[in-house]
């Protein structure tokens, strides 16, 4: 906290003290150094309690092109009552890190014990990506069950990331079962993506004939197939 207050005292004089101007400055932010200064100013002016400002600070530090997930976690810990957007942003940030993907699963466990918030359809794709990176098949299976229980299994982003998680964890037949589920969704996009995932999964396992069979089953093929 003392470091942030020191940054606030050194912040560029062009930074405004109004809440709306601070938000504009944050949206135009292009470096972590500037973010740290704006974060310090928001604390000094008490604008950190503005949900829009807190969300923008967390978003930039978590998932921007210069993200710092550890700083994002510090920001998150300073938010007294984080809503599901904050949770999802931080889970997404950790799911994109090869070194820290397991923290996404840890955060999810904490989310499940927080009140009154509950996971939504945006929570599960990031979680499944994290499980695929680790890899963590047992945690992925539990998250699969949670998605079904909460009614999000029919979401195409959940379903495609579920198939990818199973495929990258070497459970290719579990991934293949997702094809049957994807046929229940409107449109063919999810079905095509899952077929591509299966082709890639079989190739990774050296099961070329199975990959060719899945490829032949596809209703739509493109250059990326």
From TrEMBL:
Keyword Repeat belongs to the record: yes
Keywords: Repeat, Signal
InterPro entries (UniProt xref): PPR_At4g14850-like_plant, PPR_rpt, TPR-like_helical_dom_sf
PPR repeats: 191-225
Residues annotated as signal peptide: 1-16
Protein's recorded name: Pentatricopeptide repeat-containing protein
Source organism: Platanthera guangdongensis
Organism taxonomic ancestry: Eukaryota, Viridiplantae, Streptophyta, Embryophyta, Tracheophyta
Gene name of the record: PCMP-H38
């Amino acid at each position: 906290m003392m470091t942030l207050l020191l940054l606030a005292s050194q912040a560029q004089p062009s930074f405004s003290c109004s809440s709306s101007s601070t938000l504009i400055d944050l949206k135009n932010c292009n470096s972590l150094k500037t973010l740290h200064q704006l974060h310090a100013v928001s604390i000094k002016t008490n604008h950190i309690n503005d949900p829009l400002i807190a969300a923008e600070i967390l978003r930039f530090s978590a998932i921007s092109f210069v993200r710092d997930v550890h700083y994002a976690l510090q920001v998150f810990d300073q938010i007294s009552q984080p809503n599901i957007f904050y949770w999802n942003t931080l889970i997404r940030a950790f799911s994109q890190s090869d070194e820290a993907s397991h923290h996404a699963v840890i955060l999810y466990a904490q989310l499940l014990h927080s009140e009154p918030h509950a996971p939504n359809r945006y929570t599960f794709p990031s979680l499944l990506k994290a499980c695929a990176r680790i890899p963590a098949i047992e945690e992925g299976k539990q998250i699969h069950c949670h998605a079904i229980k909460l009614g999000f299994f029919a979401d195409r982003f959940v379903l495609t990331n579920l198939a990818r998680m199973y495929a990258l964890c070497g459970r290719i037949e579990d991934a293949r079962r997702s094809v049957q589920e994807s046929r229940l969704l409107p449109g063919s996009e999810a079905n095509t993506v899952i077929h591509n995932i299966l082709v890639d999964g079989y190739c990774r396992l050296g099961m070329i004939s199975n990959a060719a069979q899945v490829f032949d089953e596809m209703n739509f093929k493109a250059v990326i197939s």
